[in-house]
Amino acid sequence: MANESTLQVSFRVRDVVEIALGACILAFPTATTEEVWNLGAELSLSRAMLFLIASVFFLAVLIYGMHGHKPGDRNVFLQRVLATYGVTFLIGAALLFGVDRLELFTDPLTGLKRAILVAFPASFAATAVDSFGSAGSKE
Fold first, then answer.
1. What pLDDT is recorded for position 51?
2. How far apart are CA 121 and CA 139, in angstroms?
């Protein structure tokens, strides 16, 4: 049987929920560690941006490998990559806010760097959970 794994034509609310749940799997333990808080405070913005770029790049590779790709699916592919990172980033930021480490009003740059660090591993868990849900809904 040939591999018929192709990217879904639509991006549903169910997919966003799966991404959010998957993000929580690694975002919660990552957001509650002092190492991430300290690294976010000490890391330069350019290094944090490298984490963001690496996250989006590896997400694209992972989503491409898990879901497949057709030439006409480019918009759905980009939408899935950006939505996955965006939802994961927001989940990470919300968790950091919940443990009073987002520093949104006192030091927003540090909060941004911390959220980027939390989103790095959490985005991969989000993609994995989304792929399990997508595989189950193909039947």
1. 97
2. 30
Arithmetic mean of pLDDT over the chain: 87
CA atoms within 13 A on the CB side of 139: 4
Nearest C-alpha neighbor of 64 from the set 77, 75, 55, 76: 77
User: Model's pTM, two decimal places?
Assistant: 0.85
Q: How far apart are CA 124 and CA 65, in angstroms?
A: 13
Element (H, E) at 114: helix 108-136
User: How sure is the predictor about 2, in pLDDT bands with cuts at 50, 70 and 90?
Assistant: very low
| Distance linking the first and last C-alpha atoms of the chain | 15
Closest of 96, 77, 94 to residue 32, by C-alpha: 96
> Which H or E element spans position 40?
helix 34-42
Question: In 3D, which of 12, 2, 3 has the Cα closest to residue 133?
Answer: 12
Instruction: Give me 133's structure tokens.
Output: 């849900």
Residues 6+ apart with CB under 8 A from 132: 18
Q: What DSSP letter does each residue of 12-35 carry, written as one string?
A: -HHHHHHHHHHHHHHHHHHHT-HH
How large is the average pLDDT for residues 90-111?
96
